[in-house]
């Protein structure tokens, strides 16, 4: 399998993948605790009788008391499994399980596969219709044409929840997005394009309808099926859905129809197109060979004879994957969230346009990483990749908006901006933690120095920082940085402000300033000049301390301690502050601030008190109500030990400062975080689990942060450096672009100070 492409796997591996551990790809997890007798009484009899009566009285409350509103059935009878044909309901189960888990992975939609053992259209329809109480939506899959048209149409009429045959419309939406972008790249107007569609089944008919809806002319489309061209007057192998696309033409075979065509859309079977056919197409042909698992023609075979072609397939291992996974999770997300009664044309067009637009924007690093290659809009990247996290924000919102505008939304969204934000948070809890910071940064964009701009990862962060409106990046690096920006898809690299420390006109003033600070620490003026010229951290920190920028981000090229030493040559701690580091640990239902994880090896009681106050301030700026625990191995003196004094005294220092937050200690991590353990200490002054953990020393702090990151289901933000006179953020050397972006935003928003 997959021999001519980038990803290789054997049939054995594919079987092993499915059989290893728990067989299959799906399991069900309870969303409520099931630990105690009381839990059982609530979840099942007798407690469950209460929502039963409520729903019987008002059926709409089923959306409040059951999983219905977020539950989609993936239903097939296995009559058109991928392009493998009619292999029966049971054989379709791996595909349907796969689709169910994609719903969850990409859009947090709960989904279950259902395979129905019947080819009888009426039985199928009745079975699905009877399931309406269970689900919030129905996704039909791999049902052959023309039965699928009758099934979908009838179910739509009979059911009051969205029914969507994904092979038809999901495919059509992604293909249409790709066609829009390929036309743009080759300078074509949709209304003049000549299109040949191969296949006249579920996917082809819907694709053809959608491209016609967005501007392709009816007479410019020739459709073929297994018997050749569908021309007006043909009688063999026809049905009403094919007839609707029959045109007047003398062409009778695909080979004849494809001559001079601008676009080929294949939704038929493997190998249906030859190199000779491709040679006959118009200049810069657009070829979407979407049959699965093997396309009508492979991209290497196309490019061998037509290097000017734009090629897409249904596979993830070639560029430009037209796969409905880009659509269905997000389309259902939007439809479920407004409790839409159906998914109409306007919602489909909105999804296609949102997806097309996304491909034209700069690509986030997560995507490049997931695919092991970089993307920018062009012939090899006309469609976003499924791992693009922006799909989750953009597509459901576009679909929900269109549903509201066309009157099918039973629960319209009042605040679209808040909805988009909640979508982002749905998959990545970190995003919601950072909401406030992102908003503050956008409202008042600051100048942030990216001191290591020669690093690609730093440039990616800087580009996003600018493009997303969080602030103005001030780059430090050599002239080649402009080429690197261009290579990353930036059209106007010169619009970035770039400072080259070797020839910057600011150097003499900077050297003066540095000399003033360092002359009594044994440095000559020429040492200072050399430092300014050669050390980007010193140059960057000087840009900030001399007022040319508001904050700085660095750390990917040198270890933390060395970077901090360099920065400290230029800058002091803020007056009466102790500089220290915070890691924020974000898990699905908890956010915890951990300090000091980076700077003070053995903090004194005063320093611990400063660390607590500084962390509280950061937590508050991020919208949290802080409760501080001073951690130890001991709870309130038990067991006694030789190194508890600092921690104890830190509490006394805070007592004397009369601070306005809850703090307690010394205590163990479980007494701080776990309400059950906490009950052993009823005198504790904490009103709930702690969310600011002040660690007794750097060893335990740094180790804890890194252990949690490596072992736990937590996302880590930071380290954030606070307590310096200006915000300087020192990332870890292993940081990726989104971690750098986060730190830059925290600095720009004035959170990390
Ligand atoms: N990339 C993607 O995201 C998706 C890809 N697909 C792929 O599209 C293909 C069709 O799926 P689907 O529409 O669900 O299946 P259907 O069974 O509904 O339709 C198949 C169509 O292909 C036609 N066909 C078969 N052999 C040939 C041939 N040699 N030349 C021309 N046409 C031929 C059939 O013609 P006839 O009517 O004469 O029998 C029929 O019209 C599959 O390969 C599937 O994997 C589908 C959905 C999504
Ligand atoms: C992707 C898909 O749905 C198909 O090939 O049938
Ligand atoms: Mg399918």
What is the strand and helix layout of this fold?
Blueprint: H1 11-19, H2 37-43, H3 49-57, H4 62-65, E1 71-76, H5 93-107, E2 110-115, H6 121-130, E3 137-140, H7 147-158, E4 163-165, H8 166-185, E5 195-198, H9 202-213, E6 221-225, E7 228-229, H10 240-243, H11 254-257, E8 263-266, H12 275-279, E9 286-289, H13 299-305, E10 310-313, H14 328-337, H15 345-359, H16 365-371, H17 390-405, H18 416-427, H19 429-433, H20 435-443, E11 446-450, H21 456-467, E12 471-476, H22 481-487, E13 497-499, H23 507-518, H24 525-534, H25 536-545, E14 551-554, H26 560-570, E15 580-587, E16 590-595, H27 605-621, E17 627-631, H28 645-657, E18 662-667, H29 669-673, H30 675-678, E19 692-694, H31 698-711, E20 715-722, E21 727-730, H32 737-748
Parallel strand pairs: 1-2, 1-3, 3-4, 5-6, 5-8, 8-9, 9-10, 11-12, 11-14, 12-13, 14-21, 16-19, 17-18, 17-19
Antiparallel strand pairs: 6-7, 15-16, 15-20
The structure holds NADPH dihydro-nicotinamide-adenine-dinucleotide phosphate, pyruvic acid (PYR) and magnesium ion.
The site of NADPH dihydro-nicotinamide-adenine-dinucleotide phosphate (NDP) has 30 residues, from helix 8, helix 9 and strand 6.
Please, could you describe this protein's structure?
With 753 residues, this protein is α/β, with parallel strands linked by helices. The chain folds into four domains: 133 residues, Rossmann fold (3-Layer(aba) Sandwich); 250 residues, Rossmann fold; 135 residues, Rossmann fold; 144 residues, Rossmann fold (3-Layer(aba) Sandwich), CATH 3.40.50.10750. 42% of the residues lie in helices and 13% in strands. It contains 32 helices and 21 strands. Helix 21 crosses helix 32 and helix 27 crosses helix 28. It is globular and about 95 Å long. It binds NADPH dihydro-nicotinamide-adenine-dinucleotide phosphate, pyruvic acid and magnesium ion. The site of magnesium ion has 3 residues, from loops. The site of pyruvic acid (PYR) has 7 residues, from loops.
């Amino acid at each position: 399998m997959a021999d001519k492409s980038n990803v290789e796997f054997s049939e054995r591996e594919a079987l092993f993948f499915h059989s290893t551990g728990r067989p299959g790809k799906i399991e069900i997890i309870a969303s409520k605790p099931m630990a105690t007798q009381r839990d059982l009484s609530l979840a099942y009899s007798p407690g469950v009788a209460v929502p039963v009566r409520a729903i019987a009285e008002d059926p709409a409350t089923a959306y409040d008391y059951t999983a219905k509103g977020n539950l989609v059935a993936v239903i097939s009878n296995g009559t058109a499994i991928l392009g493998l044909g009619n292999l029966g309901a049971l054989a379709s189960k791996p595909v349907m399980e796969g689709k169910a888990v994609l719903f969850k992975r990409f859009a947090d939609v709960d989904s279950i596969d259902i395979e129905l053992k019947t080819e009888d259209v009426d039985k199928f329809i009745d079975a699905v219709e009877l399931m309406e109480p269970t689900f919030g939506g129905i996704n039909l899959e791999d049902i052959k044409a023309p039965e699928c048209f009758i099934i979908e149409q009838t179910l739509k009429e009979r059911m009051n929840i969205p029914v969507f045959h994904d092979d038809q419309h999901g495919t059509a939406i992604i293909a249409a997005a790709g066609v829009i972008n390929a036309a743009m790249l080759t300078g074509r107007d949709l209304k003049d394009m000549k299109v040949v569609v191969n296949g006249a089944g579920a996917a082809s008919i819907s694709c053809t309808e959608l491209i016609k809806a967005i501007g392709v002319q009816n007479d410019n489309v020739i459709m073929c099926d297994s018997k050749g061209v569908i021309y007006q007057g043909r009688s063999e192998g026809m049905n009403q859905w094919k007839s609707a696309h029959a045109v007047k033409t003398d062409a009778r075979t695909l080979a004849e129809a494809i001559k001079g065509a601008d676009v080929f859309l294949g939704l038929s079977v493997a190998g249906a197109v030859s190199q000779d056919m491709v040679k006959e197409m118009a200049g810069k042909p657009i070829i979407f060979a979407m049959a699965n698992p093997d396309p009508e023609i492979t991209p290497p075979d196309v490019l061998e004879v037509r290097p000017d072609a734009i090629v897409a397939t249904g596979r993830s291992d070639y560029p430009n994957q037209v796969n409905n996974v880009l659509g269905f999770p997000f389309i259902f997300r939007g439809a479920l969230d407004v409790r839409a009664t159906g998914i109409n044309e306007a919602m489909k067009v909105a999804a296609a346009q949102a997806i097309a637009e996304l491909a034209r924007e700069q690509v986030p690093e997560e995507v490049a990483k997931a695919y092991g290659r970089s993307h920018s809009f062009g012939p090899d990247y006309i469609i976003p990749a499924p791992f693009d996290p922006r799909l989750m924000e953009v597509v459901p919102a576009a679909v929900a908006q269109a549903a509201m505008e066309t009157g099918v939304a039973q629960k319209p969204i009042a605040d679209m901006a808040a909805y988009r934000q909640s979508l982002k948070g749905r998959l990545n809890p970190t995003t919601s933690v950072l909401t406030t910071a992102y908003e503050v940064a956008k409202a008042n964009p600051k100048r942030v120095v990216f001191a290591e701009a020669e690093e690609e990862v730093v440039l990616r962060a800087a580009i996003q920082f600018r493009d997303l409106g969080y602030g103005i990046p001030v780059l430090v690096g050599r002239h080649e940085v402009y080429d690197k920006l261009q290579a990353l898809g930036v059209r106007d690299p010169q619009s970035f402000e770039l400072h080259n420390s070797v020839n910057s006109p600011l150097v003499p003033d900077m050297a003066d300033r540095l000399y003033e600070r360092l002359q009594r620490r044994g440095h000559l003026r020429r040492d200072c000049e050399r430092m300014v010229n050669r050390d980007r951290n010193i140059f960057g920190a000087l840009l900030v301390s001399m007022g040319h920028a508001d904050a700085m981000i660095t750390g990917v090229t040198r270890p933390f301690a060395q970077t901090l030493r360099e920065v400290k040559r230029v800058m002091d701690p803020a007056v009466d502050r102790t500089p220290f580091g915070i890691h924020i640990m974000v898990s699905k239902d908890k956010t915890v601030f951990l300090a000091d994880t980076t700077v003070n090896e053995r903090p004194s009681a005063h320093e611990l008190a400063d660390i607590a106050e500084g962390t509280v301030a950061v937590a508050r700026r991020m919208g949290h109500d802080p409760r501080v625990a001073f951690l130890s191995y001991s709870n309130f003196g038990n067991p006694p030990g030789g190194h508890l004094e600092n921690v104890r005294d830190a509490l006394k220092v805070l007592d004397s400062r009369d601070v306005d937050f809850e703090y307690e200690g010394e205590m163990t991590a479980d007494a701080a975080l776990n309400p059950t353990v906490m009950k052993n200490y009823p005198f504790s002054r904490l009103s709930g689990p702690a969310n600011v953990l002040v660690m007794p020393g750097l060893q335990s702090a740094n180790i804890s942060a890194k252990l949690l990151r490596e072992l736990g289901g937590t996302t880590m933000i930071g380290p954030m450096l606070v307590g310096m006179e200006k915000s300087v953020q020192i990332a870890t050397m292993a940081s990726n672009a989104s971690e750098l972006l986060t730190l830059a935003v925290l600095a720009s928003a004035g959170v990390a100070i």
